[in-house]
Amino acid sequence: MIDTAHLIAAGVPPTQARAFAEPLRAACALWGIDTPLRVAAFLAQLMHESARLTRLEESLYYVTPERIRALWPTRVASLDLAARLLRQPERLANLVYSGRNGNGDIASGDGWTYRGRGLIQLTGRANYTAAQVACNRPYVAEPWRVAEPTDACLTAAWYWHSRGLNTLADSMQVDEITRAINGPAMVAAAERRQMTEEAARALA
């Protein structure tokens, strides 16, 4: 159902379209993303989360303290602390992701080790562990694999399936899908709706 031409028509750059067409097709088949509505909704969310399949790893490199505070207001309690975290992605990750999603404390380094990767930004030791079990891949010991095309597609499709998003896609509940992926912030909900419509047209 997905091929290079479909991805390009949906807005994916040609280089990424060629690299991701086959692993996306295989991952969708494995996890039941197998109707035009499901594929369109899935592809739209992936494109938004990964900047149209061009960004597979969270950088956490920020140059203004205001941006850090806006993203993690409870984890980074002041602009002064935020200023000390500028251009220090590893230190920032270990702080803001410590003690969450199965991660250890700041000193464990889990925040950086299990930072967001893949097409749906798999984040946290617990999610890497669950994906490892479901996909039979060594993500806990080798988390970098999630940022490779095959595993990025595999983990994204597993995550989608594990949250029951095929059912929401069947009735095109795009905002509910966005909430399941992005949380209550619902970042770029309107853009995700538009991308879903564009993907549906590309796949028609």
In short:
With 204 residues, this protein is mainly α. The protein contains 12 helices and no strands. The longest helix is centred in the N-terminal third of the chain and has 17 residues, at 14-30.
Which characteristics define this entry?
single chain; 204 residues; mainly alpha; Lysozyme; 2 domains; 12 helices; 0% strand; globular
Characterize the structure shown.
By secondary structure, the protein is an all-alpha fold. It has two domains: 4-57 and 117-203, Lysozyme; 65-113, no CATH class. The protein has helices at 4-10, 14-30, 36-49, 65-71, 79-84, 89-96, 110-113, 125-135, 149-162, 165-170, 174-182, 189-203. Helix 2 crosses helix 9 (149-162). 39% of the residues are buried. The mean pLDDT is 96.
Radius of gyration: 17 Å
Give the proportion of residues in helices.
Answer: 55-70%
Which strand-content bin applies to the residues? Answer: under 5%
The shape, in one word, is globular
The first-level CATH class name of the largest domain: Mainly Alpha
Structural class by secondary-structure content: mainly alpha
Mean pLDDT: 96
Counting H and I runs of at least 4 residues, what is the number of helices?
12
Count up the domains. Answer: 2
Q: How many DSSP-defined strands?
A: 0
Q: What low-confidence regions span 5 or more consecutive residues with pLDDT below 50?
A: none
Profile the largest sheet. Answer: none
